Amino acid sequence: MKKQQGFTLIELMIVVAIIGIISAFAIPAYSDYTQKTRLAGTVAGITSYKTAVALCGQENGAFTTCNHNTNGIPDTIAANNAGATINYVDALTVASGAINVTSTGVNSSNAKMVLTFTPTLSDGAIRWGITGTGCASATNTRGINCNN
């Protein structure tokens, strides 16, 4: 008869320690990834607002009259909407072409992030400046790139 052998307690403890070390690095990285993805979903969801503001600016030559619920721009999304109208969007306003959007809680502590999209019209082209707490520079790699 052959003697049965299994893993020793030391070998099992080493495996558990290795899994613990790997998960210590993987969980924060996954959290950063999901937060950045949700914030990108916020930006993608407001495309219709950006298009409407761009059209308003092209038609009027300036953005001063490009406000929510005028010139074909959709109405605001009231605070605490919690993504019911647009995924990951908690609130949204448009004033003089600037789109101010607040995301739903996108990180583990349910913190809301704010992005402001400010259009400029130059030689017939519209450029969007992005600022706010959802930028990567403000959130230590958890936000989106707001440089360009």
Question: What would you note in describing this structure?
Answer:
With 148 residues, this protein is of the alpha+beta class. It has helices at residues 9-45, 47-60, 136-139, and strands at 89-95, 98-103, 114-122, 125-132. The protein has a four-stranded antiparallel sheet. Strand 3 and strand 4 (125-132) form a beta hairpin. The radius of gyration is 23 Å and the shape is elongated. The N and C termini lie far apart (73 Å).
Task: Break the fold down into its secondary structure elements and pairings.
Layout: H1 9-45, H2 47-60, E1 89-95, E2 98-103, E3 114-122, E4 125-132, H3 136-139
Antiparallel strand pairs: 1-2, 2-3, 3-4
Quick summary:
The protein has 148 residues and is an alpha+beta fold.
What's the β-strand tally? 4
In whole angstroms, the N-to-C terminal distance is: 73 Å
Spatial order of strands in the largest sheet? 1-2-3-4
CATH topology: Glycoprotein, Type 4 Pilin
**Poorly predicted sequence stretches spanning 5 or more consecutive residues:** none
State Rg. 23 Å
Characterize the overall form. Answer: elongated
- Biggest beta sheet summary: 4 strands, antiparallel
Find the structural class using helix and strand composition.
alpha+beta
Tell me roughly what share of residues is in helical segments: 25-40%
Number of helices: 3
The total domain count is 1
CATH structural architecture: 2-Layer Sandwich
